[in-house]
Design brief:
Layout lengths: L4 E5 L3 H10 L4 E6 L10 H6 L4 H4 L3 H4 L4 E5 L2 E5 L4 E4 L6 E2 L2 E4 L4 E2 L7 H4 L6 H16 L7 H7 L1 E5 L3 H21 L6 E5 L11 H13 L2 E4 L2 E7 L2 E6 L2 E6 L2 E4 L3 E2 L2 H4 L11 E2 L5 E2 L2 E6 L4 E2 L11 H20 L13 E5 L3 E6 L2 E4 H13 L5 H14 L14
Parallel strand pairs: 1-2, 1-7, 2-3, 7-19, 9-10, 9-15, 10-11, 17-20
Antiparallel strand pairs: 4-5, 5-6, 8-16, 12-13, 13-14, 18-19, 21-22, 22-23
Bound molecules: flavin-adenine dinucleotide.
Length: 411
């Protein structure tokens, strides 16, 4: 009897961890459009040089073994009735017996004119590299004798969206720029703007952790504008609206962190969805009309999870265990399980020297929280071999940020 074919689409928190738990005993194909995983909660530290690419973005072929076959290809269509997945640049669709969907979301530009064309997303390694290059480029073009007000205009960076991502990235950017100003003896100071439509930063989080976030934004001199809506983005700036009046500012770069939208692969899938376009799944993660298809992570709405977990790595990571267990049960003809998912806590990286951590209902911040965050995330990286190597590297080689050096000296 040939082994049942398990196909997993998407190698992020949901897909990779499902594949790792299933590998060894089953015939698994992991289809994913990148050749590496990204531990997104530490993309900020990669951007600031506190960690290296191999720490947080290991290649799949270094992680999986045994029966997991990795296919680096973009899935373009799923036919739930024919049980096949079409892949870009592949003539024949890939057949499956059991399918796990975990393709995650994409940046939501919310239809703001110019946003997709001119602002930078921040979800991948290449996005972090691109932003860093823009900052170095901006700094390299400032003559040392330029008056402070002109330097400030030339080095204005705007971030759209003050969720956790906006707060983490803006404080890192500001700290790196401030450090670069000192090293290059530039006059004045940089300007980092954080624009938020709502009335507060980190709207989905509790007051306890917000206190540390507010303090860090102040410490890193990030200029926060709440109740502010971005109207358009152009090649050299953006226009925002606050309290009925509009203002246009010149920027060296705009980073778009304004939300996540549905993956196009799921958009065109003929299955039951919520009003927001998320796949509705049973408590076993199966699609209601297709028992052999499971969905998890950012693309699915799970009936029994704390609402604060929606769209988080924590949820996808926890669901992966359930997905692997249920795929095995399905193939063995056994009963499938369900699970209640709870929030495991929060850990935000704030600037290059501090963090805020919420665990067991208690929040703490500062340099100690930064260390705790590194320790916590060592334990969440995929595979114990990778954890060990990364943990040793952080312990022995340190986690100091990499300054924004002139272009020729950046690596
Ligand atoms: C910068 C950043 C920081 C974050 N920080 C945190 C945090 O601190 N804590 C937290 O809990 N959550 C955090 N998140 C959210 C978290 O990353 C997501 O909730 C989580 O990754 C969702 O897991 P997933 O498996 O659903 O999707 P993802 O992890 O996004 O994985 C999807 C995978 O599918 C691949 N893919 C997409 N489309 C296709 C296709 N058509 N064909 C083949 N492959 C495809 C993608 O390349 C990717 O590898 C952060 C997100 C970002 C962007």
């Amino acid at each position: 009897m040939p082994k049942p074919r398990i196909v997993i689409i998407g190698g992020g928190f949901g897909g990779l961890f499902t594949a790792l738990e299933l590998g060894g005993s089953h015939d698994v194909t992991l289809v994913t459009d990148e050749d590496h995983f990204v531990f997104t909660p530490m993309l900020y530290e990669y951007f600031s040089g506190e960690v290296e690419e191999w720490h947080i973005a290991p290649r799949y072929d270094e992680l999986v073994e045994g029966n997991v076959h990795v296919m680096v290809a973009k899935a373009t269509r799923v036919d739930l009735n024919a049980k096949t997945v079409s892949l870009a640049n592949q003539p024949d669709p890939l057949p499956y017996d059991v399918l796990v969907l975990s393709v995650g979301g994409i940046t939501n530009y919310a239809g703001v004119p110019g946003a997709e064309e001119f602002s930078l997303p921040f979800r991948k390694i290449e996005h972090a590299d691109h932003l860093r290059q823009r900052m170095v480029n901006g700094l390299d073009h400032v003559p040392p004798d330029l008056p402070p007000q002109d330097v400030r205009t030339q080095l204005t960076f705007a971030l759209v969206g003050a969720g956790a991502s906006g707060c983490e990235l803006s404080t890192k950017m500001s700290d790196l720029l401030t450090d670069a100003f000192k090293r290059r003896a530039l006059k004045g100071e940089p300007r980092v703007l954080l624009l938020e439509m709502g009335d507060r930063v980190v709207p989905g989080m509790g007051d306890q952790i917000r206190e540390y976030v507010d303090e860090a934004l102040l410490h890193s001199r990030v200029e926060v504008h709440t109740l502010t809506r971005v109207v358009n983005v152009t090649s050299d700036g953006l226009t925002f609206e606050h309290d009925g009046s509009e203002e246009h500012i010149k920027t060296a770069a705009v980073v778009w962190l304004g939300g996540v939208r549905m993956n196009p692969l799921i958009e065109q899938l003929d299955a039951e969805k919520s009003r927001r376009g998320l796949l509705i799944v049973k408590p076993t993660l199966q699609l209601p009309q297709y028992d052999n298809v499971l969905a998890l992570g950012d693309i699915a709405v799970y009936p029994d999870a704390s609402p604060t977990l929606a769209g988080t790595a924590q949820l996808a990571f926890q669901q992966a265990s359930l997905a692997a267990r249920n795929v095995k049960a399905l193939l063995d003809g056994k009963e499938l399980h369900s699970k209640h998912f709870e929030e495991l806590g929060e850990a935000l990286s704030l600037g290059t020297e501090r963090a805020a951590v919420l665990t067991g209902g208690k929040a703490f911040g500062g340099a100690l929280a930064r260390q705790a965050r590194f320790a916590l995330y060592t334990s969440r990286l995929p595979t114990w071999q990778h954890r060990l190597r990364v943990g040793a590297s952080w312990f022995f080689e340190g986690t100091a940020p990499r300054p924004l050096l002139p272009l020729g000296l950046e690596r």
